[in-house]
Amino acid sequence: MKYHFSYKTDDDGIWGNCCEVPELYAQADTFDDFKKNCEEALNLMLEEPVDSQVEFKLPDKKFDKKANTIQVPVYPEVAFGMLLRMYRLKHNMTQKQAAEKLGMKNVYSYQRLEKKSNPTLSMLKKVTEVFPDMQMDMILN
């Protein structure tokens, strides 16, 4: 999963914002630092939303070829949690309901899945049974 940041350069360095989430900004003195700052800011924002009801826009391929735009990867463990939250909300479930459907002992275990997580294969199987429309391939692209 890759989001896009448009950028501008001037005498003070490089600055820009995320095309899909315009309120997310980054800046730096060098282009390499700018890319690192974009990646860090993006992953932190997606991993730690304000609450469990926040849903972010998915990456939009229309920005792939836009001038002065870079693609910024989302860590797979962050992408999984973000997509899981998105599909839970799409199915009008609370975290507690999702935990129960996944056969988890408590809601806290489920909440960890919506954060930066690396689920087991058996958990991935359960997730695809509960949310069959979840597009897991987005995590790796």
| Count of individual beta strands | 4
Principal-axis shape:
elongated
Q: Detail the poorly predicted runs.
A: none
Helix content: 40-55%
Total domain count: 2
How much is the radius of gyration in Å? 17 Å
**Helix and strand element order:** EEEHEHHHHH
Name the beta content range.
15-25%
Strand order of the largest sheet: 3-2-1-4
Write the CATH fold name of the largest domain.
Double Stranded RNA Binding Domain
Mean pLDDT comes to: 93
State the secondary-structure class. alpha+beta
Q: Report the sheet with the most strands, covering strand number, pairing sense and barrel closure.
A: 4 strands, antiparallel
Work out the helix count.
6
